[in-house]
Amino acid sequence: MAPAKAMKASKAKKVATKAMKGQKAMSKGGLTGELANATELKKAEITKVLNALAEIGAGEVKKTGKFTLPGLCMIKTRQKKATKAGKRIMFGKEMVVKAQPAKTVVKAFPVAALKSQI
């Protein structure tokens, strides 16, 4: 990578991190307020809808391992294998690691429509 491109990339990264630090994530109450203004429904009704969506999504992820919120994200599960205890070389040093059981990891991925909007 050329020095000029590297400087532009690092500058863009700094600007992006400053923007992320400056604002807080929207709370559930804030989300219900915004949806109430957009749809002309009561906040209580929207809260019920959000709770039902969370329950349906959790059940679907548990049952099939995949749930998609159209236009927003896809939630997937992945199985991680168990690891044995022993000695491993990490960062140039030999370390003793404990055994880890197998586990299910849940991840969310942005949908292509969201990527194109940002």
TrEMBL record:
<feature type="region of interest" description="Disordered">
    <location>
        <begin position="1"/>
        <end position="23"/>
    </location>
</feature>
<protein>
    <recommendedName>
        <fullName>Major basic nuclear protein</fullName>
    </recommendedName>
</protein>
<dbReference type="InterPro" id="IPR010992">
    <property type="entry name" value="IHF-like_DNA-bd_dom_sf"/>
</dbReference>
<dbReference type="InterPro" id="IPR000119">
    <property type="entry name" value="Hist_DNA-bd"/>
</dbReference>
<dbReference type="Pfam" id="PF00216">
    <property type="entry name" value="Bac_DNA_binding"/>
</dbReference>
